[in-house]
Amino acid sequence: MNDLSTPCSCFSCTTYLTLCFDPKCEHVWKVITMETSDSGKDSKDKIASTKVKGNVKHSKQSTKPFKSWRKNLYKDFQNKKSNHKQRVKTKHQEKKIEVSELSETTSSEKQVEKVKKKLKSKVQRDGPNKDLKRLQRGPKQDSKEGRRKEGVTKPVPHKQTEFRKENFPGDAPVSQKLMSKYQRGQKLQKKRTRTHHGHIKLAQGEKKLEMAVRQAARSERLLQEQSGFMIPEDGESTTNVTQTDIIQAADITTAQKHFNLDLPHFGPYKCQYTRNGKHLLVAGSRGHVAALDWLTKRLLCEINVMETVRDIRWLHQETMFAVAQKQWTYIYDNQGIELHCLKQPHEALRLEFLPYHFLLASSNATGSLYWLDVSIGQKVANHYTNLGRLDVMCQNPQNAIICLGHCAGAVTMWSPNVNEPLVKMLCHGAAVRSIAVDSTGNYMATSGVDRKLKIWDIRKFEMVHSYQIGCGAGNMAFSQTGALAVGKGNIVEVYQDPCRQPVDSPYMIQKMKTTVHGLNFCPYEDVLGVGHGDGFTSLIIPGAGEANFDALESNPFQTKKQRREAEVQMLLDKIPAEMIHLDTKAIGKVDMKTFMEKVEENNKVHFKKPMSISYEPKHKMKGKGSGRKKEQRKRGVIEESRRQTVKEIVLDKQEGSKDKKGLGAVSKSRGVLDRFRKTET
User: How many C-beta atoms lie closer than 10 Å to residue 10's C-beta?
Assistant: First the structure.
């Protein structure tokens, strides 16, 4: 049973205006009795309605109470409708108040959350790496121009931006002392430029140089490793430390760097390492030549040339090496295959390779110094020193100058551009036995038969230190850190930085079984290679090698592809032989010649001047003696004499006779009428 206020699904019930007479209606009507208060009628006037078999029976007297019931029902409906409208209005007003109170940040956060939900679902569909920037950036804001076009003015609240102070603003500062290490001379003066364009170009170039210096100085922070020598305690000395003591205290990788090659049948041996310190080349004087990777002990090649070997040198890379044999110099590859045979100079004693110029320098017993360009296979220079046998030679790695030691105690410095020695120094009172120049090119060590070891400053050509040793050192070598190795008989002594400070005792001493014939420090390793009569020995010298390497200059860990690219780059950066000079800074300077020097050079140039002829034509009759005719005859004679002299000079050059007559001599001996003389047959 339901009340009459709750309608059914039919139209009449939903409108609340009429009664429902549908027999299928869910409402079950009660008997409604309504008594009128005004009229005192009896109970017959009461309305009685009953539901019988789904039909409603009513009388005619039920119209009045039905009308009053409709009015009440309609009033109730209007009240409910008005109440519902008021509730909706209040809710809408409350929402407006809440929206106005909310800031733009909250609304933007909601938009960001919506966009994030959409993008997350999109990321799940398309992949994790898609639209991440948009997810971080948030929703797209409307542009001001679009608002102006549409005529919409949206109030934008003021955002309070916060400026946080950084603890370390800008780049890290670099000390001026560190930058001075990489500076290349003084800055150029901008006021001397003639044009405004030149002033701008000069300023841009100075900025680039300053940036390069700052970057080079800042990159030193990345060099974490440091080279260190052994520091003894009080009352102890490093000279007593042997190789066995170092091997026991060092790690496995360092201990493996000490080894010995017993080769007693083909000695004595000479050795050399590559520029990156990865490969080793050994050669015995009786013809045995071998190249190997000394770290992994992997043999590259091993040959026997079946004749005397005097010296060996690696070329620009480990793919080729040169061997000075008994008669000629041969070039082999890393497989032992002969590539070239150099017949000049004859019977070379010493070899030196200049890596930045691709020059192979060699000296022989006749006193000739020869430079060969390996990249093109042409001779660059051949100087005859006239100073006797040249068996002591080394190069200055800073300026590519060749230093020679002579039997009179003198040391000369040579360049392929000058036929005479650039410098000639009297270093010893007896013959010079060995020479070595450090990696900076500032100091030179010489040893002679007079049992003295001297350190020279090449910048001033003055002696810095002099040491008395037991016997003349036959071999010397400088390391990258300034340590000097000296071979005296069968003893190898290493001195720690003897150039910048006086040294009382050697840093390390090692005694070999036979006489030492070759010394060479391994680059970027604390290793000294010693070639002697019984083979080769690798010694561990702590602090001898540079701890940090430049991979663009020489990379110990380069691959095959990197090696090929480095070879091409070296050929592109090849320095011509004409730039070899004592002063390395002179290459970057501008040659400012004075006006008088230019005038003198112009005066030295010989010009081909015409021959001066004094000829006066005779006076002729019949109109041929006019001034115009006389001048024409005079010019014709002069031009004919010039042609004749030119023909004679050309004939003399073609014949190639020794008695060539110059232009001046011809003009003096020959005159105008010489062309009429009879020629001698």
Answer: 15
